[in-house]
Structures are given as structure tokens and as C-alpha cells.
From TrEMBL:
Keywords associated with the record: Membrane, Repeat, Transmembrane, Transmembrane helix, Transport
UniProt-recorded name of the protein: Uncoupling protein 2
Family: Belongs to the mitochondrial carrier (TC 2.A.29) family.
Record-linked Pfam families: Mito_carr
Solcar repeats: from-to residues: 11-106, 114-203
Principal cellular location given in the protein's record: membrane
GO BP annotation list: transmembrane transport
First and last residue of the signal peptide: none
Gene Ontology CC annotation, any one: membrane
Localization: Membrane
Protein encoded by which gene: UCP2
Topology relative to the membrane: Multi-pass membrane protein
UniProt-listed InterPro entries: MCP (IPR002067), MCP_dom_sf (IPR023395), MCP_transmembrane (IPR018108), Mito_Metabolite_Transporter (IPR050391)
């Protein structure tokens, strides 16, 4: 653009949207085994009585869960559901982080000075909207992470098969199971994360401790500050 250096051109909503989703996908690739271990620890014992659940626990601790899965199901089991996980991040993070600035500008009618209320409203809006969009991918991801490969057949053979099976056996509403608590949780989380980041960024800018415009998504994309 004429009159702007390359580093002075503000990122468009599309760039923020894609940048946030891509950064989240990279993070998911690195941390997915930990997420899988978390799911296995959360669901173990659900088919047993409360008395026997602790005594016969298959997984103990994060590292113990990962090692047990590698030994009994193979290393690939740690990434069971990765496709759905990447789909989730590309849709979820893109909305909740990538659209935050645009939604905040909408609530402030383009004003450069956004109140805390406007920021909280923007954070809760994008957090809730992200869940509404990405909930089916989250359901499929967790279902894949929960099913063990060892000792029995697998209910879902592929990501597409999982979407089809859930929709056929449980109805389309089955793909949005758990949406209400997830919306409430992520609206709060998004407010805490992005609004806190936003306020700290403004404080640093006013104190001349850094220069330039750093949209929320830049916290997730190295090199954008």
C-alpha cells in the first residue's frame, strides 16, 4: 500500500482469522498427546462402580498414561483423533482469537478507545460463537481419543465415518452434545485470556515499552510483535 511500510500495514480480518487458526494447529500438533492423556484419565472408570474404579485404574498420571498407551496401543494412539483436533483448532481458534478485534470494533463502533465492557462483550461473543461453530469437531475428537485400539473393534474407522455414525445413531444434535457448558466455559476463558492480554498490551503501549499494533492473535503467532 502506498505510504505504508510492509510492517506498518495492519493485518486484515482474514489474515488474523487464518493466522490464529494456523498457530493453534501447530500448537495442537505438539501438545495433542497430552490432550489425549487428559481425556483417558477423565473417562477411566466410567463403566465401573465407584468402589472398583480406583483399584483397577489402568492409567496413573500423565506420563504413566502416555507410556501405557504406547505400550498397549502403539505410539500412533497418542494422536488418535488428530484430524478432528486440527479441524477444531482451525475453526475454533480462528473465530475466538482471529475475530476478536473485528467484533470489538463492531461493539465500539470503530472507536480506538474500547472500554473494558466492550472488550468483555467481544471476548464472550467470540468465545461462545467459536464453540457453536466447532462443537462437532470437538465431539468427534474426544470420541476418537476415548476409544482404545487394543482388545476390541473400533466404533469409528475414520473422521468422516465418525461424523456420519454420530449423526445417524444419535441425530445431528448428537454432534452438538455438551454445547451449553462448553459455551459458558469458553466465553469466560476467552474473556480472561484476550481481555487481559488486550489491557496489558495497551498498558505497555502507553508506557512506551513497545511500539506498533499487536492484535490478540499475534500472541499466538511468533514473529508478529
Amino acid at each position: 500500500m502506498v505510504g505504508f511500510k510492509a510492517t506498518d500495514v495492519p493485518p486484515t480480518a482474514t489474515v488474523k482469522f487464518l493466522g490464529a487458526g494456523t498457530a493453534a494447529c501447530v500448537a495442537d500438533l505438539i501438545t495433542f498427546p497430552l490432550d489425549t492423556a487428559k481425556v483417558r484419565l477423565q473417562i477411566q472408570g466410567e463403566s465401573q462402580g465407584p468402589v472398583h474404579a480406583t483399584a483397577s485404574a489402568q492409567y496413573r498420571g500423565v506420563l504413566g498414561t502416555i507410556l501405557t498407551m504406547v505400550r498397549t496401543e502403539g505410539p500412533r494412539s497418542l494422536y488418535n483423533g488428530l484430524v478432528a483436533g486440527l479441524q477444531r483448532q482451525m475453526s475454533f481458534a480462528s473465530v475466538r482469537i482471529g475475530l476478536y478485534d473485528s467484533v470489538k470494533q463492531f461493539y465500539t463502533k470503530g472507536s480506538e478507545h474500547a472500554s473494558i465492557g466492550s472488550r468483555l462483550l467481544a471476548g464472550s461473543t467470540t468465545g461462545a460463537l467459536a464453540v457453536a461453530v466447532a462443537q462437532p469437531t470437538d465431539v468427534v475428537k474426544v470420541r476418537f481419543q476415548a476409544q482404545a485400539r487394543a482388545g476390541g473393534g473400533r466404533r469409528y474407522q475414520s473422521t468422516i465415518d465418525a461424523y456420519k455414525t454420530i449423526a445417524r445413531e444419535e441425530g445431528f444434535r448428537g454432534l452438538w452434545k455438551g454445547t451449553s457448558p462448553n459455551v459458558a466455559r469458553n466465553a469466560i476463558v476467552n474473556c480472561a485470556e484476550l481481555v487481559t492480554y488486550d489491557l496489558i498490551k495497551d498498558t505497555l503501549l502507553k508506557a512506551n515499552l513497545m511500539t506498533g499494533s499487536c492484535p490478540p492473535f499475534s500472541a499466538w503467532v511468533p514473529g508478529t510483535w
